[in-house]
Amino acid sequence: MRKLMASAALVALAACGNPIPESGPSTGAGVGFGDYGEYQARREAELAGNPVPAPEMVSTTTLGGDTSDGAQVAAAARAALDADDQTEERAANSGERVVQASPNNAPPAVVNSVGISNENNFDAVGNQRTIQDDAARIAASRQQYQVASVQALPNRAGGQGANIVAYALKTKHPAGTQVYRRVGVNKSGRYARNCAKYTGPDLAQIDFLEKGGPERDRLGLDPDGDGYACGWDPRPFRKARDG
What mean pLDDT value characterizes the chain? Predict the structure, then answer.
């Protein structure tokens, strides 16, 4: 009785489960793949070294027109991309195309293929002139050569005036030391007013010496009596002499 009930339970369980699909070459279907023949052909091609892409990996979309020659289509696409790149390169390089470094580049054009001149080419000179021709050219150049005679330098105009360099080297006392007596009123006012008429102390000192200085000061350019007008300083001249 127990064996009968166990057998009935197994039959009921088998009826409730999913049916196992048949497989084999006769049915063309198997576990884990759709078509056995297709799988077998692809497997044999992979083992032979020529894999066949799965059907879902091959696109059926056409690019328009005859696509029998894929290389031409790819070349046209690359040419269009290269044209766009060249346009951008020229715009960024003052209209000139940027040359990329590559061993396949053509050699650069020769800028100057003239070479040396005939005057510096010994073969060219030897074919054009003889030794006698060179001797004649040297003789002609010597005839045109002139030696200028030595002449004395002309006297410089205005060179007879006061020489502040000689005056600076002749004096010994520093600026501000009274050596000459000065009299008069409003000496500081005259000093400021008259010194403003000169563009520099050197010109004021020259005019001061030419008008009786340093003993006399008609224009009031040396109110402290040191013999130096309008702040003129003899020290740079003395320093130049002493090195």
Answer: 75
pLDDT tens digits, residue range 57-87?
555 555 555 545 666 767 777 777 677 666 7
**Taking 90 as the threshold, does the pLDDT of residue 201 lie above it?**
yes
Q: CA-CA distance, 203 to 230, in Å (whole number)? A: 10
pTM (2 decimals)?
0.36
Q: Residue 53: which of 64, 65, 61, 45 has the closest Cα? A: 45
Burial of residue 228, with CB atoms counted within 10 A of its CB: 0-12 exposed, 13-18 middle, 19 or more buried: buried
Six-digit token pair at 91? 């715009």
Q: Which tokens go with 207?
A: 């005019």
Q: What is the mean pLDDT of residues 189-200?
A: 92
Buried b (16+ CB within 10 A) or exposed e, 189-204: ebbeebbeebeebeeb
Amino acid letter for position 116? I
Tell me what the mean pLDDT of segment 118-136 comes to: 80
Phi-psi region of 98 (alpha: psi -120 to 50; beta: other; left: phi over 0): beta
Q: CA nearest 207: which of 230, 226, 187, 224?
A: 230
What is the token pair recorded at 126?
């030897």
What is residue 37's three-state secondary structure? helix
Is the pLDDT at 227 greater than 90? The verdict is yes
Detail the DSSP E strand segments found in 105-199.
none
User: What is the spatial distance between Cα 25 and Cα 37, in angstroms, rounded to a whole number?
Assistant: 8
Q: Which contacts (CB < 8 Å, 24+ apart) does range 8-11 have?
A: none
Rounded distance, CA 230 to CA 201, Å? 6
